Amino acid sequence: MAVPFERRTTQRNAISGATHRDGVIFAPTDVVLTSSNAESMTYRPPFRKALQIVLFSAFSVSIPSAWVAAQSQTAPTRVTVRVVSHDAKIIGDGVGGVRVVITRAADGHILADGMQTGSTGDTNAIMVQPRERGQKTFNTPGAAAFHAELALIEPTLVDITAYGPLGDPGHLVQTGRRMLLVPGFHVEGEGIILEMNGFTVRVLSPRAEKVERAHSDITVTTSVTMLCGCPTEPDGLWDNNRYTIMGKLYRDDELLGETTLAYAGQSNMYSGVFRGVAEGRYRVEVIAADAEKGNFGYDHVRFSVSE
Fold it and tell me: Mapping DSSP to helix (H, G, I), strand (E, B) and coil, where does residue 24 land?
């Protein structure tokens, strides 16, 4: 059987204003519960604690909101990105440039998206002079770069991703970096340097639309440049004597032969011959490799041989 309780209030301070009306308590006072079988128990109304929680929550929310509002009124944070061909120069307009996208790492929201434009930079500064800490290597007049202004309101982890060279869409290379950016701290000058590994390789002959004569020699001609378009040639800055450039001939998935593609007397140009190719459908693959630097390039073409 439930024990009946008698309600009475005790005023704990002069401003509580505790009152009764028909047994209902109308003020935030303590309630002492008494019964014939129990010791007096003090009851503190839950709305006191709830009021404290609401006030604390409102205060804690209002501070970040005010801080965010203040930060959103600050000037954009300027960022410069330069995308460079590994062991070579900046990837510029001559090879189609590079697309650069900056996203917020937390949710992929795009903060900036655009093109790196400009020249390949100063050959002497990039490839010849010994590099010392703090010297200008890439930040020279006209050198290609991507410039962005980011609306950052707090320190933000970002992903910077580059795709290129856009002049060779069939063999786009992707590179990137994740890093922290802080509002108001501009990254300019040399900028954030991203590197792309590889060669740009294009098979110039045989050509897919041309039918070769059966049992004739098939000459494979290709061009090989750095991703920035910098030339490869004997004893040059990009010395082809350090590279392996070879052609492979396939019928279906069967490898029929390989040949070294030798320098053809003109910058970037290499050639080799497959002799006495019979009637059929073929695929030629060309590979350029500089394993020491981690640069590789590839292209292929399918062609027909007929009587």
Answer: strand
Which overall architecture, per CATH, does domain 77-196 show?
Sandwich (2.60)
Q: Which residues of 14-37 are buried (b: 16+ CB within 10 A; e: fewer)?
A: eeeebeeeeeebeeebbbeeeeee
- pTM, whole model, 2 decimals? 0.74
Q: Where do the structural domains in the chain lie, given as residue ranges?
A: 23-72, 77-196, 199-306
The Cβ of residue 273 has, within 10 Å, a number of other Cβ atoms equal to: 12
Predicted confidence band of residue 210 (pLDDT cuts 50, 70, 90):
confident
Alpha helix segments (H runs only) across 120-240: 123
Return the sign of the alpha-carbon dihedral for residues 247, 303, 231, 83: negative
Is-same-fold flag (77-196; 199-306)?
A: yes
Q: Count the alpha carbons within 13 Å of 135 in the hemisphere toward its beta carbon.
A: 9
Helices (H), 103-206: 123
Summarised one tens digit per residue, pLDDT across range 149-183 is 999 999 999 999 999 999 999 999 999 999 999 99
Alpha carbons within 13 A on the beta-carbon side of 160 = 23
Determine the Cα–Cα distance for residues 135 and 93; give it in Å rounded to an integer.
25
The Cα 211–Cα 304 span in angstroms is 5
74 backbone φψ class: left, alpha, beta (φ>0; ψ -120 to 50): beta
Nearest to 228 by CA among 65, 305, 119: 119
Place of tokens 């962005």: 148
Question: Which letter does DSSP use for residue 13 in this model?
Answer: S
Residues contacting residue 65 through CB under 8 Å, at least 6 positions apart: none
Helix/strand/coil percentages in the chain, nearest 5: 15, 50, 35
Strands 187-196 and 77-85 turn out to be parallel
Fold (CATH) for 199-306: Immunoglobulin-like (2.60.40)
Give the pLDDT band (50/70/90) at residue 209: confident
